[in-house]
Amino acid sequence: MMRASKYQWTNAAPRQNFEALKGKVPQETWNKCFRAYGAHINALESFPLFAAAVLAGNMAKLPPSDLNSLAAQYIGVRIVYTGLYIFNRSSEKIAYVRTGVWYWSLAIPALTLIRAGTHLNLQL
Question: What pTM was computed for the model?
Answer without folding.
Answer: 0.85
